[in-house]
Amino acid sequence: MQLREMELDLVRILQKDARISTEDLGKMLQVPAKEIEEAVEKLEKANILVRYSSIVDWSKVDGHEGVTAMIDVKVVPKRGVGFDEVAHRIYRYKEVKSVYLMSGAYDLSVTVEGRSMHEVATFVSEKLSTLDSVLSTTTHFQLKKYKHDGTIFGDHGEDRRIVVSP
After folding, report:
1. Domain boundaries, the chain
2. CATH class of the domain comprising 58-144
3. Interior angle at CA 106, CA 54 and CA 132, nearest 5
4. Per-run averaged pLDDT (10 residues), the chain, 166 residues
5. 84 — phi, psi (to 5°)?
6. Which CATH number is associated with domain 5-45?
7. pTM of the entire predicted model
8. Nearest of 22, 12, 27, 34 to residue 4 by alpha carbon
9. Gap between the Cα atoms of 158 and 11, Å rounded
């Protein structure tokens, strides 16, 4: 779908912060708020704006640390459907947060979340590795999150920018 320049700008703004009001978006893009509402509705119907979500730093919430693992998966693609069928089977598991087709040594990159390393290991050994198309897996556990989707986590030290005031 071809988007107008205003719609592209709107998508870029909402990707960074979906909580901006339509009035503020209208001011930023120099169009009426009604036009913003219509554009958002159009983008949602076209599945360009798919979901609005928050980024949460779970490491700051006691009892909710959890474990995230990135799993490289080597698979045998099936004739006629390629990697799509096995990717579909994998992303249907509740533990799986994302699946990407990759170039390089492995075919799929799978992100899995669990309450413990044991829970993730059990998922890999009992569910993922047992799929008939899966040849091998390599699991990488996240130890610390520094930046995600452009958001920096943790304490960054003091702000070193020069203060500018009128």
Report:
1. 5-45, 58-144
2. alpha beta
3. 95
4. 92 90 94 94 94 79 85 94 94 97 97 94 96 96 88 70 70
5. -60, -45
6. 1.10.10
7. 0.73
8. 12
9. 32
